[in-house]
What we know:
globular
Amino acid sequence: AAPMDGYSDYPFRAICRQCGAGLTFTEMIPAIALTFGAKDARRRVKVHGDDDPLAIQIEGSNPEVMARGAAMAQDAGAHIVDVNAGCPSRRVTNGGAGAALLSDLELMARILKAVRAAVSVPVTLKFRSGPSTGHLVIEEVARMAQDCGIDGLTLHARTRTQGYRGKSDWSHIARLVEHVELPVIGNGDVLQGEDGRRMLEQTR
């Protein structure tokens, strides 16, 4: 079940698990809010015993703060720490986080290395295909993730400028699969079971 800000709280995740979800993600958590002990961040990072395996997703643009947030997520009980480089919301990208990182791959690499060094649990990365349809960074991010020791990737097959408009391009997911040995999760326009089967067939 994908991480959805404002939706993927514990009751929602519990329902998803009852329906067969094998892995769930928390809502996106700003690492800086977590490190400052903000009430909503503390709520989002809470791990319940039957919520297993659970990935805690963090976002931010400061490698040191992201590393501290990752360590706190692991201490809270995260089975996986997921780095968000896909959210197109201006609230996130105006601070240089989320999909804004697609335009600053050097900073993204510093964040991934810092988070990887801060925790012992698996670290995954969620990202979009690129800043815009004319500027895709799928292969670059794939190489970077492997070099930084990332354990898995989720690709939302739209660009930052697309937001949630238009149709996701699953061929981008197939391209990613060709370039990495890591586990890949495909994201975008899987609205029913048949869509999931088609994505598996088309992207492998």
